[in-house]
Design brief:
It is elongated and about 155 Å long. About 15% of the residues are buried. It is built from four helices and nine strands; from the N terminus they run ααββββββαβαββ. By secondary structure, the protein is of the alpha+beta class. A hairpin with a 2-residue loop joins strand 8 (about 255-260) and strand 9 (about 260-265). It has helices spanning about 1-30, 35-40, 200-210, 235-240; strands spanning about 45-50, 65-70, 125-130, 145-155, 160-180, 190-200, 215-220, 255-260, 260-265. Helices cover about 20% and strands about 30% of the residues. It folds into two domains: about 45-115, Antifreeze-like/N-acetylneuraminic acid synthase C-terminal domain (Type Iii Antifreeze Protein Isoform Hplc 12), CATH 3.90.1210; about 120-240.
């Protein structure tokens, strides 16, 4: 009898305890909103990105583009939301994979693709042939700035001594290309062609230097635009030995005494 009464009380305690826990849980849910409900929804917009690296002067194609969702608050200024808006537009500068397409990075609508699109009204594009060593071993790329060093034989002197001189400074590389040509021995060889952006006067200097001598490119720091005057170097300048100064020979003096007169005579 006592056992039945104890079991009955235990059953009631379990039922009431479960009910109390359930009601407390419901009350807590009603008072505390869920995280999803409390977090404000982030508004997004579509932003067009480059799917791959694209070079300066290229016309964008659909295969080079992709669209992602971007938080509207942080969307880049000048970005595009529709790929059709930028297909066919020509790049003013090179783009990297994943970089947003921005209006300042594009030329005006209708601009033609190629180098002609990136040359301004006061400059010209001139191409010269170089070898891998002259091309700074592959470190010269479109957009880098270089000095042009020419080694040529002087024709304005009787001895026609070769001289090396910096003929152009701080010029922009527009393009690098490679093609096969036939060498003097009849064998095909791979040569590099570097296209530089120069003024009309610089174009004349570059063409003359390439025709009469050998060119070397000197890579510049991106922020260095200083023009330094040079006079050129010849073999004599490199091989000239320093002039030794003649040593001063100390003079010998003899003291001469004549009566009360004392004098010194140097020899």
């Amino acid at each position: 009898m006592h056992n039945r009464r104890a079991l009955l009380f235990f059953a009631f305690a379990v039922v009431f305890g479960t009910a109390a826990a359930f009601l407390a849980h419901r009350a807590l849910e009603d008072q505390t909103p869920t995280t999803a409900a409390s977090a404000p929804a982030v508004e997004t917009v579509n932003v067009v990105l480059a799917r791959t690296d694209v070079t300066t002067g290229s016309a964008l194609t659909a295969q080079q583009l992709r669209t992602v969702e971007w938080p509207k608050e942080y969307a880049p200024t000048g970005s595009f939301s529709d790929e059709d808006e930028v297909v066919g537009r020509v790049l003013r500068r090179a783009l990297a994979d994943g970089e947003p397409i921005l209006e300042p990075s594009l030329l005006v609508v209708g601009a033609e693709a190629g180098l002609v699109s990136v040359i301004n009204d006061k400059t010209r594009a001139v191409s010269v042939k170089v070898d891998p060593i002259i091309g700074v071993a592959g470190f010269v790329n479109p957009g880098t700035r270089v000095d042009v060093v020419a080694t040529l034989r002087r024709v304005d002197t009787a001895k026609k001594i070769p001289v090396t001189k910096v003929v152009l400074q701080d010029v922009r590389v527009l393009a690098i290309d490679q093609k096969m040509e036939t060498a003097q021995n009849g064998e095909p060889e791979l040569v590099s062609v570097v296209t530089l952006e120069v003024s009309p006067l610089q174009a004349e200097q570059l063409a003359y230097s390439a025709h009469e001598g050998r060119l070397q490119l000197a890579l510049r720091s991106p922020g260095d635009h200083e023009v330094i005057k040079t006079v050129g170097v010849t073999a004599a300048d490199l091989l000239r030995r320093p002039v030794k100064k003649a040593r001063a020979v100390p003079k010998t003096g003899v003291q001469i005494v004549k009566g009360s007169n004392v004098s010194v005579k140097a020899f």
